[in-house]
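Team,

Forwarding the record for the chain on the shared tracking sheet. I've put the sequence and predicted structure together so nobody has to dig through attachments.
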Amino acid sequence: MNKTTNLNFWWRWLVAADIIVIVFGTAQSLLPNLVRQGFSLMVFGSATYMESFPPDAIRYITLAHAIMGAVMIGWGISMMYTLFTQFRSGEWTGWVSIAIAMTLWFIPDTIMSIATGFWQNAVLNVGFILMFAIPLAATYKSFRAK
């Protein structure tokens, strides 16, 4: 695999990972009940556990999921723009922009997930970060060499 083919492979990987971020954010915003049930299953071992919360708490959790989803959509679209412009043209700033965005999300989100006892979210975070860290690590030298 030559250098251009290699970069194209990793670029496509990042685009696919970013699409997953956008789709996940869209699901949080448009399917908040389903997402709440998914998180309830992941965290409490029961898709219906959160349904036992007071109605105000359920509404607030639904709102929080919808807001986080909207933020993820915006973040994903912003990263997609970077991927199709700076990253695609091999600019170091494109690589750095994606790396910084992922790092500054991962560290506080994961620390707070663990600190509040929701380690399951930290595990989910590891899956998300790996989708980006693997291609970023694989392309680091190519971008840095320019």
